[in-house]
Amino acid sequence: MPFIDEAVLDDEARLRSCDSGETLRALATAGAQVREGMVLAAEAGVARLARQDRPRSVLVASLGGSAVVADVLDVLAEPGSPVPVAVRRNVPLPGWVGPLDLVVAVSLSGRARGPLAVAAEAARRGSSLVTVGAADSPLAAVCARARGVHVDVGRGRVSSRTAMWSLLTPVVVAARELGLVEVGDDDLLAAATRLDEEAEACRPSSESFVNPAKSLALTLSETVPTVLGDGPLAGVAAARAASMLARTARVPATHGELPDAASQVVATFDGPYTAGGGDGVVSARPASDDIFADPFLDGPAQPRLGLLMLRDAVGRIASPEQADLAALADAVLATAEEAGVRVATVTAEPGHALTRLAGLMARTDFAATYVALGLGIDPAVSRHITALRDQTGG
User: Fold this and answer.
1) pTM for the whole thing?
2) What is the reported pLDDT for 368?
């Protein structure tokens, strides 16, 4: 059963030796990525989108480490966008996409098959095109032939997981120019500041008892985690957190969003991974804090079910919907604790939606990386992913 020693997380030299790709350092540049992305978007001429006719619809193509870009734009645009925003990971394009529509394709390398194929097909159909990725890449070439807008991601970005804000910022700026989202420069800079604050709080030199990301990593250790968001915005952060736990820490994690996922998550509290669940089920002993437990007499310990609740900030005057979600989240947490589930909560600080999202994602990004390092796993290297790419040519 995986176990993280707190002393390992507080040993900077050991963390550095295991972090060959400098994942922690790359995550700490998130605020700088936002500021640089704003500059690169302006230099690419994204402002010219405001002078064009508003598209009939917008379709966003992103996958893998950049998949969250499409999800973020969708949740930001949903409340007030005058046109629909759709998400597509790969071809074929929907039949309705044509010359009146805008397609946004995102790929850090500019070579990911899905976004590249979507961009090429959109260009063939005469759609307007905005792409974000490496300069002098196939994606940039497709965009140039279609006379679209291509935004470079800058130098030193080696992983879409750690360069997410370099990919997201130009897309948000483009959406603003089109009138799809209400995100001003001040909002973007506030998000960058929030990311800087999280990087400072979660820095490797900060000890576990004061470092919120290290504390969260310790809580999630020895668990099979479920990440639950208490609404659409926190739901996007939950999806990102589950992806980071799986891809970075190699920990299988599920995710969901309230209110829809409440029943299926609470149902697992009756299963074999909780202290009081699994009635009638012959299984190994669930993990517990009992120091006298004997693995030979009591059976091998299994990981305990973990619940990471991501909560959006609620204003002074909550809407009825927000109040209902808050009450439901409280009920789920109370039920989890009664069932012996190991529970952790991260609550967004007040601010613009993008700023709140930045805080939630930064905290869980660092936590997932500390889980990996605490288990002695290099966050940037996976031999099985390398083997898969070799076999598929991906």
Assistant:
1) 0.92
2) 97
